[in-house]
Amino acid sequence: MTIDNVVYLAREALLTVILVSSPILGSSLIIGLLVSFFQATTHLQEQTLTFVPKIVGVLVVTVLFGSWMINVMLSFISNLFINLNSFIIIK
């Protein structure tokens, strides 16, 4: 396995992780900002208030984008297995 192959695999793996996690992290970030804005305007400083909307938001996003996330991961894995023989150098 050459350095080019390692860099290619690392780049593809990081891109897949970013693509798969971005909908969940983005929704959690937006919901957290909205809840903290609501808490700042109402002076309601309950620490557990942020968890329930985030859990519901992550659940909704997972249901909406779950099939797409699985397709992205399956595409990466199938590409890895198809090109597995090019990553191995036999001496």
Can you walk through the features of this model?
The protein has 91 residues and is mainly alpha-helical. It has one domain. α1 packs antiparallel against α2. It starts with a helix and ends with a helix. The model has no long low-confidence stretch (mean pLDDT 90).
Low-pLDDT runs of 5+ residues are none
User: What count of structural domains?
Assistant: 1
Per DSSP E runs of 2 or more residues, the count of β-strands stands at 0
Mind telling me the C-alpha Rg? Answer: 20 Å
The helicity comes to over 70%
How many helices does DSSP assign? Answer: 3
Notable characteristics:
3 helices; mainly alpha; elongated; 91 residues
